[in-house]
Design brief:
Number of strands: 8
Shape: globular
Number of domains: 1
Order of helices and strands: EEHEEEEEHE
Strand order of the largest sheet: 3-6-7-8
Largest sheet: 4 strands, mixed
Radius of gyration: 17 Å
Length: 154
């Protein structure tokens, strides 16, 4: 399926609707997943075609997190149930560009406002991920952050 603008979202990123080929493995109230980046689209395809994936869904789990003195909702990118050998494992996965998973570094060549925005986003992500780790632990899942480096999408 091609690109699609989603509710006023930025057209800077690849966005659209992914309709799984293996519908029996996908769970979601609408029967499709919305991807908000090329990284998500590529990972959806991997999940859909991997025979060790028993079930998967996108943005089906909502975790509350606290940031800047108030509560927010964090929509987890992926929930997946894998068969790993003889074991069944549950994972909560966040997909992010590698650059967004490391502390921003100040440089005189950058605008201060850009650096401050990156620092705020990094702090917000840290809060989200801590909440996701706690949620996963309580539910018997593993939480992982995957980047293009983990998935070999350079």
């Amino acid at each position: 399926m091609g690109q699609l603008a989603l509710n006023g979202r930025s057209k800077k990123f690849k966005q659209g609707v992914y309709i799984p080929k293996n519908k029996e493995k996908f769970f979601g109230k609408d029967g499709y997943a919305i991807y908000r980046s090329g990284l998500e689209l590529n990972y959806f395809r991997i999940l859909d075609n991997n025979p060790n994936v028993l079930k998967w869904g996108s943005e089906e789990i909502v975790v509350p997190y606290f940031f800047e003195n108030k509560w927010h909702k964090y929509y987890i990118d992926i929930f997946v149930i894998f068969k790993v050998g003889e074991e069944i494992k549950k994972f909560i996965i966040e997909l992010k560009p590698y650059k967004q998973t490391v502390q921003p570094v100040w440089s005189k060549r950058r605008k201060q406002s850009t650096y401050l925005n990156e620092c705020r986003e990094f702090a917000k992500n840290q809060s989200k991920w801590e909440s996701a780790r706690n949620f996963a632990s309580q539910k018997g899942c593993e939480f992982h952050i995957l980047t293009e480096k983990d998935l070999n999408f350079n």
